[in-house]
Amino acid sequence: QEIVWTRPQRAIFRELYSLPSLDAKTGLHHIAGSIDDYFNVLRQFCVGIEEGCHAIENALASKNWKEFVLRTHAYKGSLAIIGHNELSEKAKELEFAARTEGAENETLCAEKNSAVY
User: What is the pTM of this model?
Assistant: First the structure.
């Protein structure tokens, strides 16, 4: 399926493509090649990121491991969808640490959390 780009979309995507931490081509692939859908997903991610990070930090601070795992899992998936592979992998490590060690090793979770956020 050929993607039809408008001039503004091409310019924006060129800027996104130049970001070293974002694999915009992979992100676009995850959205089935729809540039408008990809921009919408990016926009939603940017709007919700601060609230999502606060929720993760609050879950960690309150030692609510179930909520912490749920939030880090969602964050990991969101990062993967937009093509931010490096942070998605770090969030995956954080989720795994919380799932396997959680309360037994809250220091490790706190350290991994600060590396991701």
Answer: 0.74
